[in-house]
């Protein structure tokens, strides 16, 4: 008896093949094989004339979806149908969640198998798990499929109804989404809070006792019995002490005077408190907590984390990575406890096996937390993994093992000291038994927060002791605005609010960045002015869509549909076609929304208007001579746009750019200007004879006010030739690029070798010797634009014609396939994991043939364009004369 097993990806298929008899044929569907139409060209001819055709959902006939097979999946469906002809049984073995259930259902509908068909699910790809799953096959869960279909339809209705409205009223290419728009609003709300923030200043004293063993420090907390103000006592919107707080606010003069008064006086220990504290390990990872911790500790985006986790799962290293559950199987608990005992000893094992329960009601679709696969856990060193895969596996292994370890026992120590009428406090921590901290310490969203395993030792003091203060200093502090969201803190907020599914957070955050709603800078998600405009429009006209509580209730209803507690059709009818349904609201509000108003961002304490234009955001003010506009540089955030910044941008437009001086050799003026990409220097004026005067960006940390003539001349002289490489004779230059200053070694046919400069290096003065030193260092991460230096996301194999490697790399516009000098993007719907070598060869071949035909066409049309130039010019002149 022969059996066809269908999974999603080739990697998963390769792993599963190892555990099945030879009579089983395992093929990959490459993800979804059927979906709602993604473009007008995919809409079937039979429904193209219908009013609902663009939606891909017949809202007039019980929301019946129109499913199509995308062009790039037709070949795969044909191959699967052919494979099905030669077997006696079909097993659909897609992932165990709603998405996987949906893929299996679509495969069944498309393939129409005439042989017995089973649904097989498993939580990990190990021999034991696969054999067990084979014995426990079931039917497709129609309820889960319906819940996923409802979710897909709902997302389509929201996106395809609101997005066209945003195109008309704000800018082409924008998008709205059921979860995406709420996430964007969270970013915008935080940025508004930063704009409204007013800094508060306060002072206190710090005492150092360096002669004690060990040395320690103490901070001023009271004066004459009154608490000293700290950051938590300030109102963020006024910068003043919050009303009703009975605290003493010290300024600099008062703090310095107090320091002088207390210097040399006798210190006394007035109280010592020791409090035992027990800390328990965190539960094993869910999708959400893995994304958060990976972002905090490894600086990986949610998208990259899921990509790496998918690879680990498909290779059999971890269990399924899309889960809301913190539950561990008995097998997993036994494996974790075995690791603890073997690596750390019996005393580090928790007295009883720990079992965690999931609080989320919607956590029914996965059986276990994310953990190392198998009945015994491979240590990270035993896996043979490297790079990101090793780092993520290491996180998962440590977190799982730690959850079965003993509690950490600590003692918190607080020492109160008195000097005259001033009270000081010193805090310490003694770790009595590290417990799980031996294996794992959870990261923090606060970069300044101390990790729990950091012991702070205080000397063995007693009440009545008189420690010797060796230094007393007055210290000034400023309150800080609310921190912007990181990917980790945004994911945490979305999950805690019950918005969306953790398995979708990676793609949602990716879309927010791709659509220009946020920039990712130093791990912070900074919303753009476009995000402000879109959020303003939705808040005013469609408040429910961006209301976290409304979206959370919607998510709960979708979960209830999955369990049969709610009916899908009445819900969709009410949401979309009801009296206050989305379609009704859009029809009512479209005529009310003024496009000019929608493109205007109102910012507090700013007289200038911010508008969203075709080429990006700009400021607009009216003066006696009319309206003046100026582009807003891309690195200027909404929270930082203040009247002073507006004045600088407008002054350039009104009075012209500031002149630094004249070039010592050419005599041309050198200007400092501010453009869309920030400040830069320009040599000479823009004229018909000189349409593109030379320009150079300023170095990081240099402001227009601090630019000198010497610096400007140096920047305009870039790239600087430093000399030749002693080994190759190739030219070595220093210059400034997209990612900052760098040196480059021209290796001729071998290409160019780049290195970024260090913080201490200056591109204007760096020597040949220093450049050679940098070039001798190994490359790191993405510091080079040469793809040869990048780590490949996947290695597909070698090209049959020339033997050169074919790899997949991560580029600024997403992943792409590279062979020699030919690059081709991965088609929509495909992923890094499911592209095969054969498909890559087809894509590269198509790209090569297109390039050839384009070159031929351009050659043949160039002569035509020259010959028609005269006649078109004549026609234009005639038309102008007639007009």
From TrEMBL:
<dbReference type="InterPro" id="IPR013824">
    <property type="entry name" value="Topo_IA_cen_sub1"/>
</dbReference>
<dbReference type="InterPro" id="IPR006171">
    <property type="entry name" value="TOPRIM_dom"/>
</dbReference>
<feature type="site" description="Interaction with DNA">
    <location>
        <position position="322"/>
    </location>
</feature>
<dbReference type="InterPro" id="IPR028612">
    <property type="entry name" value="Topoisom_1_IA"/>
</dbReference>
<dbReference type="InterPro" id="IPR000380">
    <property type="entry name" value="Topo_IA"/>
</dbReference>
<feature type="region of interest" description="Disordered">
    <location>
        <begin position="364"/>
        <end position="383"/>
    </location>
</feature>
<dbReference type="InterPro" id="IPR013825">
    <property type="entry name" value="Topo_IA_cen_sub2"/>
</dbReference>
<dbReference type="InterPro" id="IPR025589">
    <property type="entry name" value="Toprim_C_rpt"/>
</dbReference>
<feature type="domain" description="Toprim">
    <location>
        <begin position="2"/>
        <end position="126"/>
    </location>
</feature>
<feature type="site" description="Interaction with DNA">
    <location>
        <position position="151"/>
    </location>
</feature>
<keyword id="KW-0413">Isomerase</keyword>
<dbReference type="InterPro" id="IPR013826">
    <property type="entry name" value="Topo_IA_cen_sub3"/>
</dbReference>
<dbReference type="InterPro" id="IPR003602">
    <property type="entry name" value="Topo_IA_DNA-bd_dom"/>
</dbReference>
<feature type="site" description="Interaction with DNA">
    <location>
        <position position="32"/>
    </location>
</feature>
<feature type="region of interest" description="Interaction with DNA">
    <location>
        <begin position="175"/>
        <end position="180"/>
    </location>
</feature>
<protein>
    <recommendedName>
        <fullName>DNA topoisomerase 1</fullName>
        <ecNumber>5.6.2.1</ecNumber>
    </recommendedName>
</protein>
<feature type="region of interest" description="Disordered">
    <location>
        <begin position="275"/>
        <end position="295"/>
    </location>
</feature>
<dbReference type="InterPro" id="IPR023405">
    <property type="entry name" value="Topo_IA_core_domain"/>
</dbReference>
<dbReference type="InterPro" id="IPR013497">
    <property type="entry name" value="Topo_IA_cen"/>
</dbReference>
<dbReference type="InterPro" id="IPR034149">
    <property type="entry name" value="TOPRIM_TopoI"/>
</dbReference>
<feature type="compositionally biased region" description="Low complexity">
    <location>
        <begin position="859"/>
        <end position="875"/>
    </location>
</feature>
<dbReference type="InterPro" id="IPR023406">
    <property type="entry name" value="Topo_IA_AS"/>
</dbReference>
<dbReference type="Pfam" id="PF01131">
    <property type="entry name" value="Topoisom_bac"/>
</dbReference>
<feature type="region of interest" description="Disordered">
    <location>
        <begin position="846"/>
        <end position="883"/>
    </location>
</feature>
<feature type="site" description="Interaction with DNA">
    <location>
        <position position="152"/>
    </location>
</feature>
<feature type="site" description="Interaction with DNA">
    <location>
        <position position="167"/>
    </location>
</feature>
<feature type="compositionally biased region" description="Basic and acidic residues">
    <location>
        <begin position="792"/>
        <end position="802"/>
    </location>
</feature>
<feature type="site" description="Interaction with DNA">
    <location>
        <position position="160"/>
    </location>
</feature>
<keyword id="KW-0799">Topoisomerase</keyword>
<keyword id="KW-0238">DNA-binding</keyword>
<feature type="domain" description="Topo IA-type catalytic">
    <location>
        <begin position="141"/>
        <end position="583"/>
    </location>
</feature>
<dbReference type="InterPro" id="IPR005733">
    <property type="entry name" value="TopoI_bac-type"/>
</dbReference>
<comment type="function">
    <text>Releases the supercoiling and torsional tension of DNA, which is introduced during the DNA replication and transcription, by transiently cleaving and rejoining one strand of the DNA duplex. Introduces a single-strand break via transesterification at a target site in duplex DNA. The scissile phosphodiester is attacked by the catalytic tyrosine of the enzyme, resulting in the formation of a DNA-(5'-phosphotyrosyl)-enzyme intermediate and the expulsion of a 3'-OH DNA strand. The free DNA strand then undergoes passage around the unbroken strand, thus removing DNA supercoils.</text>
</comment>
<dbReference type="InterPro" id="IPR003601">
    <property type="entry name" value="Topo_IA_2"/>
</dbReference>
<dbReference type="Pfam" id="PF01751">
    <property type="entry name" value="Toprim"/>
</dbReference>
<keyword id="KW-0460">Magnesium</keyword>
<dbReference type="GO" id="GO:0003917">
    <property type="term" value="F:DNA topoisomerase type I (single strand cut, ATP-independent) activity"/>
</dbReference>
<feature type="site" description="Interaction with DNA">
    <location>
        <position position="155"/>
    </location>
</feature>
<keyword id="KW-0479">Metal-binding</keyword>
<feature type="active site" description="O-(5'-phospho-DNA)-tyrosine intermediate">
    <location>
        <position position="320"/>
    </location>
</feature>
<feature type="region of interest" description="Disordered">
    <location>
        <begin position="778"/>
        <end position="805"/>
    </location>
</feature>
<dbReference type="Pfam" id="PF13368">
    <property type="entry name" value="Toprim_C_rpt"/>
</dbReference>
């Amino acid at each position: 008896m022969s059996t066809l097993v269908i999974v999603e990806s080739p990697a998963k298929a390769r792993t599963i093949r190892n555990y099945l008899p030879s009579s089983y044929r395992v093929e990959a569907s490459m993800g979804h094989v059927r979906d709602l139409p993604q473009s007008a060209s995919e809409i079937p001819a039979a429904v193209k004339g219908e009013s609902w055709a663009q939606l891909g959902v017949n809202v007039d006939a019980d929301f019946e979806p129109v499913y199509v097979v995308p062009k790039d999946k037709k070949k795969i469906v044909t191959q699967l149908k052919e494979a099905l002809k030669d077997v006696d049984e079909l097993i659909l073995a897609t992932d165990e969640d709603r998405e996987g259930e949906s893929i299996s259902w679509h495969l069944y509908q498309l393939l129409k198998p005439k042989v017995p068909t089973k649904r097989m699910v498993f939580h990990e790809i190990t021999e034991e798990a696969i054999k067990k799953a084979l014995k426990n096959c079931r039917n497709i869960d129609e309820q889960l499929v319906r819940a996923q279909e409802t979710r897909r339809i709902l997302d389509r209705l929201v996106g395809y109804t609101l997005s066209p409205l945003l195109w008309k009223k704000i800018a082409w290419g924008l998008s709205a989404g059921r979860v995406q728009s709420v996430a964007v609003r969270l970013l915008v709300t935080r940025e508004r809070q930063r704009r409204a923030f007013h800094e508060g200043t306060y002072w206190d004293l710090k005492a150092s006792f360096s002669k004690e063993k060990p040395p320690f420090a103490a901070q001023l907390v009271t004066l004459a019995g009154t608490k000293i103000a700290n950051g938590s006592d300030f109102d963020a919107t006024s910068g003043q002490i919050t009303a009703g707080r009975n605290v003493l606010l010290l300024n600099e003069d008062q703090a310095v005077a107090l320091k002088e008064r207390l210097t040399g006086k006798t210190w006394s220990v007035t109280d010592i408190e020791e409090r035992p504290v027990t800390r328990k390990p965190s539960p094993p990872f869910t999708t959400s907590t893995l994304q958060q911790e990976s972002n905090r500790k490894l600086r990986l985006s949610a998208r990259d984390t899921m990509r790496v986790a998918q690879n680990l799962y498909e290779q059999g290293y971890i269990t399924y990575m899309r889960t809301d559950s913190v539950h561990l199987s008995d097998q997993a608990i036994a494996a974790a406890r075995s690791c603890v005992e073997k690596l750390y000893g019996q005393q580090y094992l928790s007295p009883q096996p720990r079992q965690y329960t999931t609080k989320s009601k919607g956590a029914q679709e996965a059986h276990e937390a994310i953990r190392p696969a198998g009945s015994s856990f491979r240590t990270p060193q035993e896996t043979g993994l490297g790079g990101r895969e090793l780092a993520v596996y290491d996180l998962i292994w440590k977190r799982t093992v730690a959850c079965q370890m003993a509690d950490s026992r600590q003692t918190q120590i607080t020492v109160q000291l008195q000097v005259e009428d001033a009270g000081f406090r010193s805090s310490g921590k003694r770790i009595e038994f590290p417990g799980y901290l031996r294996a794992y310490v959870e990261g923090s969203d606060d970069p300044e927060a101390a990790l729990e395993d950091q012991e702070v030792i205080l000397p063995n003091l007693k009440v009545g002791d008189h420690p010797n203060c060796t230094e007393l200093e007055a210290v000034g502090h400023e309150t800080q605005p609310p921190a912007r969201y990181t990917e980790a803190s945004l994911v945490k907020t979305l999950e805690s609010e019950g918005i969306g599914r953790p398995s979708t957070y990676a793609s949602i955050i990716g879309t927010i960045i791709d659509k220009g709603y946020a920039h990712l800078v130093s791990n912070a998600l900074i919303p753009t002015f476009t995000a402000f405009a879109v959020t303003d429009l939705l808040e005013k006209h469609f408040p429910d869509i961006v209301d976290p509580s409304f979206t959370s209730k919607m998510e709960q209803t979708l979960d209830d549909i999955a369990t049969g507690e709610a009916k899908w059709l009445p819900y969709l009818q009410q949401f979309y076609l009801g009296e206050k349904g989305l379609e009704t609201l859009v029809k009512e509000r479209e005529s009310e929304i003024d496009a000019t108003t929608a493109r205007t961002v109102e910012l507090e304490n700013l007289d200038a208007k911010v508008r969203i234009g075709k080429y990006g955001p700009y400021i607009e003010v009216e003066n006696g001579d009319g309206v003046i506009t100026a582009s807003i540089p891309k690195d200027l955030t909404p929270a930082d746009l203040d009247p002073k910044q507006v004045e600088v941008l407008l002054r350039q437009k009104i009075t012209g750019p500031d002149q630094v001086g004249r070039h010592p050799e050419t005599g041309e003026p050198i200007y400092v200007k501010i453009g869309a990409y920030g400040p830069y220097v320009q040599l000479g004026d823009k004229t018909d004879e000189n349409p593109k005067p030379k320009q150079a960006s300023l170095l990081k940390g240099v402001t227009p006010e601090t630019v000198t003539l010497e610096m400007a001349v140096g920047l305009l002289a870039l790239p600087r030739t430093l000399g030749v490489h002693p080994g190759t004779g190739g030219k070595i230059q220093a210059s400034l690029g997209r990612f900052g200053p760098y040196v480059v070694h021209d290796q001729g046919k071998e290409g160019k070798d780049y290195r970024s400069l260090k913080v201490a290096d200056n591109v204007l003065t760096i020597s040949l010797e220093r450049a050679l030193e940098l070039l001798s260092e190994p490359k790191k991460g993405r510091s080079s634009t040469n793809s040869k230096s990048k780590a490949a996301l996947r290695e597909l194999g070698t090209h049959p014609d020339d033997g050169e490697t074919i790899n997949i790399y991560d580029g600024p516009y997403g992943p792409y396939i590279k062979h020699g000098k030919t690059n081709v993007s991965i088609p929509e719907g495909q992923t890094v994991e499911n592209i095969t070598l054969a498909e890559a060869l087809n894509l590269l071949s198509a790209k090569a043939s297109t390039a050839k035909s384009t070159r031929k066409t351009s050659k043949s049309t160039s002569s035509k364009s020259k010959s028609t130039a005269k006649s078109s010019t004549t026609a234009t002149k005639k038309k102008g004369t007639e007009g």
